[in-house]
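FIELD: query
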Amino acid sequence: MDSIAQLRKNYTLGQPSESQVPRDPLPLFQLWFDQAVQAKCPEPNSMTLATADQTGNPSARIVLLKGADQNGFTFFTNYESQKGKDLAVRPQAALLFHWHELERQVRIKGVVERFSPAESDEYFHSRPPASRIGAWASPQSATIPNREFLETAEERFKAEFGDTPPRPEHWGGYRLRPTELEFWQGRPSRLHDRIAYKLVGSNWQIHRLAP
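FIELD: result
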Protein backbone atom coordinates (compact mmCIF):
# COMPACT_ATOMS: atom_id res chain seq x y z
CA MET A 1 0.00 0.00 0.00
CA ASP A 2 1.25 3.48 -0.86
CA SER A 3 2.07 5.64 2.11
CA ILE A 4 -0.85 7.78 3.27
CA ALA A 5 1.66 10.54 4.05
CA GLN A 6 2.55 10.76 0.36
CA LEU A 7 -1.00 11.55 -0.82
CA ARG A 8 -1.04 15.05 -2.29
CA LYS A 9 -3.49 17.40 -4.02
CA ASN A 10 -2.79 20.89 -5.31
CA TYR A 11 -5.81 23.20 -4.79
CA THR A 12 -6.49 25.72 -7.55
CA LEU A 13 -10.22 26.49 -7.80
CA GLY A 14 -10.78 29.75 -5.90
CA GLN A 15 -9.36 32.78 -4.15
CA PRO A 16 -11.73 34.57 -1.72
CA SER A 17 -10.62 37.88 -0.23
CA GLU A 18 -11.57 39.38 3.11
CA SER A 19 -12.01 42.74 1.35
CA GLN A 20 -14.68 41.37 -1.02
CA VAL A 21 -16.84 39.08 1.12
CA PRO A 22 -20.19 40.36 2.52
CA ARG A 23 -20.28 41.88 6.00
CA ASP A 24 -22.68 39.17 7.15
CA PRO A 25 -21.57 35.53 6.74
CA LEU A 26 -24.98 34.06 5.87
CA PRO A 27 -25.10 35.34 2.25
CA LEU A 28 -21.63 33.90 1.68
CA PHE A 29 -22.68 30.56 3.17
CA GLN A 30 -25.80 30.52 1.00
CA LEU A 31 -23.71 31.31 -2.11
CA TRP A 32 -21.22 28.54 -1.36
CA PHE A 33 -24.03 26.09 -0.54
CA ASP A 34 -25.85 26.89 -3.79
CA GLN A 35 -22.60 26.42 -5.72
CA ALA A 36 -22.08 23.04 -4.01
CA VAL A 37 -25.57 22.01 -5.17
CA GLN A 38 -24.88 23.23 -8.70
CA ALA A 39 -21.55 21.37 -8.73
CA LYS A 40 -23.45 18.19 -7.80
CA CYS A 41 -21.40 17.62 -4.66
CA PRO A 42 -22.71 14.43 -3.00
CA GLU A 43 -25.19 15.35 -0.27
CA PRO A 44 -24.11 19.00 -0.03
CA ASN A 45 -26.17 19.40 3.15
CA SER A 46 -24.22 16.70 5.01
CA MET A 47 -22.16 18.14 7.84
CA THR A 48 -20.04 16.96 10.74
CA LEU A 49 -21.61 17.84 14.09
CA ALA A 50 -19.15 17.90 17.00
CA THR A 51 -20.37 17.94 20.60
CA ALA A 52 -18.84 17.28 24.02
CA ASP A 53 -20.19 15.68 27.15
CA GLN A 54 -20.14 17.10 30.68
CA THR A 55 -16.50 16.07 31.21
CA GLY A 56 -15.38 17.48 27.85
CA ASN A 57 -15.06 14.20 25.93
CA PRO A 58 -15.78 15.04 22.27
CA SER A 59 -17.96 13.17 19.78
CA ALA A 60 -18.45 13.82 16.06
CA ARG A 61 -20.85 12.41 13.50
CA ILE A 62 -22.41 13.28 10.14
CA VAL A 63 -25.92 14.77 10.20
CA LEU A 64 -27.97 16.62 7.59
CA LEU A 65 -28.56 20.36 7.55
CA LYS A 66 -32.29 21.07 7.27
CA GLY A 67 -32.27 24.86 7.20
CA ALA A 68 -30.03 27.93 7.32
CA ASP A 69 -31.18 31.50 7.86
CA GLN A 70 -30.51 34.53 10.06
CA ASN A 71 -31.67 32.52 13.08
CA GLY A 72 -29.08 29.79 12.60
CA PHE A 73 -28.43 26.29 11.22
CA THR A 74 -30.96 23.55 11.94
CA PHE A 75 -30.93 19.77 12.23
CA PHE A 76 -33.15 17.09 13.78
CA THR A 77 -32.43 14.06 15.93
CA ASN A 78 -33.39 11.93 18.91
CA TYR A 79 -33.03 13.98 22.10
CA GLU A 80 -31.96 10.81 23.95
CA SER A 81 -29.09 10.05 21.54
CA GLN A 82 -25.48 10.73 22.49
CA LYS A 83 -25.54 14.12 20.77
CA GLY A 84 -28.83 14.96 22.47
CA LYS A 85 -27.39 14.10 25.88
CA ASP A 86 -24.25 16.11 25.12
CA LEU A 87 -26.26 19.16 24.08
CA ALA A 88 -28.46 18.91 27.18
CA VAL A 89 -25.44 19.45 29.47
CA ARG A 90 -23.20 21.49 27.15
CA PRO A 91 -25.30 23.42 24.58
CA GLN A 92 -22.41 24.43 22.34
CA ALA A 93 -21.39 22.67 19.15
CA ALA A 94 -19.36 22.92 15.97
CA LEU A 95 -20.38 22.15 12.39
CA LEU A 96 -18.14 21.34 9.44
CA PHE A 97 -19.09 21.26 5.76
CA HIS A 98 -16.61 19.81 3.26
CA TRP A 99 -17.30 20.24 -0.44
CA HIS A 100 -14.46 18.31 -2.00
CA GLU A 101 -15.36 19.11 -5.60
CA LEU A 102 -15.03 22.85 -4.90
CA GLU A 103 -11.99 22.50 -2.60
CA ARG A 104 -13.93 24.22 0.18
CA GLN A 105 -14.75 23.84 3.84
CA VAL A 106 -16.97 25.88 6.15
CA ARG A 107 -16.47 25.64 9.92
CA ILE A 108 -19.15 26.97 12.27
CA LYS A 109 -19.23 27.31 16.07
CA GLY A 110 -22.17 28.43 18.16
CA VAL A 111 -24.75 27.96 20.86
CA VAL A 112 -27.45 25.32 20.36
CA GLU A 113 -31.10 25.47 21.38
CA ARG A 114 -34.04 23.13 20.91
CA PHE A 115 -36.89 23.89 18.55
CA SER A 116 -40.30 24.55 19.99
CA PRO A 117 -42.64 21.51 19.91
CA ALA A 118 -44.69 23.18 17.17
CA GLU A 119 -41.59 23.70 14.98
CA SER A 120 -40.54 20.07 15.48
CA ASP A 121 -44.07 18.86 14.71
CA GLU A 122 -44.12 20.77 11.43
CA TYR A 123 -40.92 19.18 10.15
CA PHE A 124 -41.70 15.71 11.54
CA HIS A 125 -44.98 15.53 9.64
CA SER A 126 -43.23 16.48 6.40
CA ARG A 127 -41.09 13.32 6.58
CA PRO A 128 -41.96 10.06 4.80
CA PRO A 129 -44.04 7.69 6.97
CA ALA A 130 -41.20 5.14 7.15
CA SER A 131 -38.83 7.76 8.59
CA ARG A 132 -41.44 8.79 11.14
CA ILE A 133 -41.88 5.17 12.21
CA GLY A 134 -38.10 4.87 12.46
CA ALA A 135 -38.02 7.68 15.01
CA TRP A 136 -40.22 5.52 17.24
CA ALA A 137 -38.51 2.20 16.54
CA SER A 138 -34.89 3.18 17.24
CA PRO A 139 -33.67 3.98 20.78
CA GLN A 140 -30.81 5.89 19.19
CA SER A 141 -27.33 5.33 20.68
CA ALA A 142 -28.62 2.67 23.11
CA THR A 143 -27.17 -0.85 23.05
CA ILE A 144 -29.56 -3.31 21.40
CA PRO A 145 -29.30 -7.12 21.18
CA ASN A 146 -29.55 -7.54 17.40
CA ARG A 147 -31.08 -6.27 14.13
CA GLU A 148 -34.26 -8.22 14.82
CA PHE A 149 -34.93 -5.93 17.79
CA LEU A 150 -35.28 -2.95 15.39
CA GLU A 151 -37.35 -4.83 12.86
CA THR A 152 -39.74 -6.08 15.54
CA ALA A 153 -40.11 -2.57 16.94
CA GLU A 154 -40.73 -1.18 13.46
CA GLU A 155 -43.55 -3.65 12.84
CA ARG A 156 -45.06 -2.95 16.24
CA PHE A 157 -45.21 0.79 15.67
CA LYS A 158 -46.50 0.36 12.11
CA ALA A 159 -49.37 -1.66 13.53
CA GLU A 160 -50.02 0.92 16.21
CA PHE A 161 -49.80 4.11 14.11
CA GLY A 162 -50.28 3.10 10.48
CA ASP A 163 -49.17 5.88 8.10
CA THR A 164 -49.80 8.73 10.55
CA PRO A 165 -47.41 8.34 13.47
CA PRO A 166 -47.25 11.35 15.82
CA ARG A 167 -43.93 12.92 16.74
CA PRO A 168 -42.28 11.23 19.71
CA GLU A 169 -41.54 13.64 22.55
CA HIS A 170 -37.93 12.45 22.47
CA TRP A 171 -37.40 13.58 18.85
CA GLY A 172 -37.11 17.10 17.45
CA GLY A 173 -35.07 19.95 16.09
CA TYR A 174 -32.04 21.95 17.16
CA ARG A 175 -30.88 25.35 16.00
CA LEU A 176 -27.23 26.36 16.18
CA ARG A 177 -26.89 30.13 16.49
CA PRO A 178 -23.43 30.87 15.10
CA THR A 179 -20.83 32.97 16.89
CA GLU A 180 -17.92 32.08 14.58
CA LEU A 181 -17.65 30.94 10.95
CA GLU A 182 -14.62 30.19 8.82
CA PHE A 183 -14.64 29.88 5.03
CA TRP A 184 -11.71 27.79 3.79
CA GLN A 185 -10.69 27.70 0.14
CA GLY A 186 -7.86 25.46 -1.01
CA ARG A 187 -4.96 27.21 -2.72
CA PRO A 188 -1.65 26.05 -4.26
CA SER A 189 1.38 25.24 -2.09
CA ARG A 190 -0.87 24.75 0.96
CA LEU A 191 -1.20 28.57 1.25
CA HIS A 192 -4.96 28.26 1.61
CA ASP A 193 -7.42 31.13 2.08
CA ARG A 194 -9.16 31.20 5.47
CA ILE A 195 -11.69 34.01 5.92
CA ALA A 196 -13.11 34.10 9.45
CA TYR A 197 -16.14 35.85 10.92
CA LYS A 198 -16.54 36.42 14.67
CA LEU A 199 -19.66 37.84 16.30
CA VAL A 200 -18.80 40.71 18.65
CA GLY A 201 -21.93 42.16 20.21
CA SER A 202 -24.33 42.40 17.30
CA ASN A 203 -21.66 42.90 14.62
CA TRP A 204 -19.51 40.50 12.65
CA GLN A 205 -15.76 41.08 12.57
CA ILE A 206 -13.91 39.70 9.54
CA HIS A 207 -10.27 38.66 9.49
CA ARG A 208 -7.92 36.39 7.59
CA LEU A 209 -6.25 33.41 9.28
CA ALA A 210 -2.91 31.93 8.32
CA PRO A 211 -3.26 28.50 6.68
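FIELD: remark
The domain at 4-79+87-116+174-208 is CATH 2.30.110.10 (Pnp Oxidase; Chain A).
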